[in-house]
Amino acid sequence: MTPEGLASIPEKLFGIIGYPLAHSLSPRIHNQAFRRLGLPCVYLSWPLQADAVEAFLQALRLLPISGCSVTIPHKRSVVALCDGLTEWAARTGAVNTLYWNKEKLFGDNTDCTGFMAPLQEQGACPASALVLGTGGAALAGITGLQALGVQEITVAGRNPRDLQDLQEHFSINPVDWEDRTEIKAEMLVNSTPLGMAGQWEAASPYPGEHLGRFRWVYDLVYNPLWTHLLSEAREAGCTCISGLDMFVMQAAGQFLLWTGRHMPAALAKQWVLQELLNHKPNL
C-alpha cells in the first residue's frame, strides 16, 4: 500500500532494515519529508533478522533501492558488506546509512553528528561519561563524545569480548555491567534498547536510586519520549536529554545524503512528537 500523500508510482525507493521495527518512526519522518518537498520517493520498513541481512544486501545491489537505513542489531554486521565507508563510519566501526556512490555501495554513520547535535545545542560539555551498552548506538555515542573532547569515557556492558574490542578501538575504560553503579561520571548515556517501546518498555538500564550522581542523563531511546530512565533522572534533578533530537538529526543527515535536499528538521521534530504523544507508533 502506498503511504498516504505520496506519489502512486515513486521514482526512488528507500527503507530501513533492523529487528524489531515496530517502534521505528523512520518511515513516518522520511515519507512526511518526501511529501513536504514534493519528492516522488517512498520509504518502507523491512524487518530482518541477522541471518537474512547478507542476502538482503545482495538483493539491494540488484533491485532499484536508492538508499537504506540500518538499525539494531545490524549496524556492525553490514560494515563488511559495503564497498566503502565514510570517515564517520570508519571511525565508529558501524553503519546506519547505506547509499550509492556512483556504482558502489557505501556506508555512512549519521548517528555520530545526530548524537552530538543536542549536546552542542545545550552546551553540555562533560569531562566524563558513562556509556551503557556496546552496540552500534554505543559506537556512535563514544565517537561523538570523543569528537566533543570528553576525556574520560567508561563503557558498561555484559559481554567481556565486546568491551575488549571497544577498549582496543576507542581506548575507553571498560566495566562489567554489574559494576556500572560504582562509576562516577558527569554524564550517563544509555545506548541500549532497554526502555524502548515494545518488549523492553518497562525496563530501565540503570537503578534510579543512583541517578542523582549524574549532571546529565542522555537516553538514546526516542520511543517513548520519556522512558523510565529519563523519568527517574528528572526526579533525581538531572538535566535530561531524550533521543528525539538525535533521531531527527541522524534522519536529516540521511535525507541530505540520499536526496541532496535538506529535511525540514523543525517540522520533522513536530511530526515525531505528535506521533509519540498520540501513542500511535508507525507499524
What does this structure look like?
This protein has 283 residues and is of the alpha/beta class. It folds into two domains: 12-109 and 248-277, Leucine Dehydrogenase, chain A, domain 1 (Rossmann fold), CATH 3.40.50; 112-242, Rossmann fold, CATH 3.40.50.720. 35% of the residues lie in helices and 20% in strands. It has nine helices and twelve strands. The protein has helices spanning 26-37, 53-60, 87-92, 111-122, 136-147, 160-170, 228-235, 244-259, 265-277; strands at 12-18, 41-47, 65-70, 84-85, 97-101, 104-108, 128-132, 152-157, 173-176, 187-190, 216-219, 239-241. The strands form two sheets. Strands 2-1-3-5-6-4 form a six-stranded mixed sheet. A six-stranded parallel sheet has the order 9-8-7-10-11-12, with helices on both faces. α8 (244-259) crosses α9 (265-277). The longest helix is centred in the last third of the chain and has 16 residues, at 244-259.
